[in-house]
Amino acid sequence: MRLLVIGAAGMLGHTLVPTARAAGHEVVGRDIDSIDITDASATAAIVAADAPGAVINCAAWTDVDGAEEHEDRALRVNGDGAGNLAAAARAVGARIVQVSTDYVFPGDAHEPYVESDPTGPQGAYGRTKLAGEQAVAAAAPDHVIARTAWLYGAGGKNFVDTMLALGAERDEVRVVDDQVGCPTWTGHLAPALVQLATGTVSGVFHVAGAGHCSWFDLAREALAATGSTCRVEPTTTAEFPRPAPRPAFSVLQSERGEDAVHLPHWREGLAGFLADRAGSTTTTAGGPR
To answer: Looking at the 3D structure of the chain, how many domains does it have?
Structure first.
């Protein structure tokens, strides 16, 4: 199938494009330098020219704190832009896969969120991503909304890299222990998105690393796995206030039965990321192997 990946230069797109090609698909990758999804007519023309069988939208305003101050700008990308892509996809008979987030939920649950649970975002980022879900569903019947969480991988700034960098510089780091979610490696999410893009079942899917943990747990596991001697100490969200609220509990699970797309456990994802990271570092330092 011919796939059009929007946001190809971002962290998820960085993995998604080669993953789709390795699976035998023809891939066109576009980013902000060649498409402005906030421009409906230009987006329609580009999608028509690319003539994909499916569009995967990885483009988003992901600055959670910045969205609190500039919600109108975030909404243009996360809401209007997603809707423009969905309308353009429908016009050429293509399926649209919209990547969404756990932030569409309030985060005050005590059990994992499933696809049919009521949404209720706390902050601007979640509101704009929910607007994107609604715009996509309204514009294109053949749509997939893939909610994921706590994404990390090569090709972009992420929490695991940040913790490893701090661990190399400090004797101790403090990390919040009262936010719980599902860490998801792009290396596991990318093939799942390709599967959804080339499938036939539409609707909302929860696609995140299996299991759950806190940010403290994830930092501790990452540093221990790399042999760091840096101590990881738990702290609370209240001690590190941010402009945007964060969900306290945003664990995602699927209720879709045989249609569900299950990712490996988050610890497997972390191990895969660290192995790839170590290999990249060795290749960079010592030349191609």
So the answer is: 1
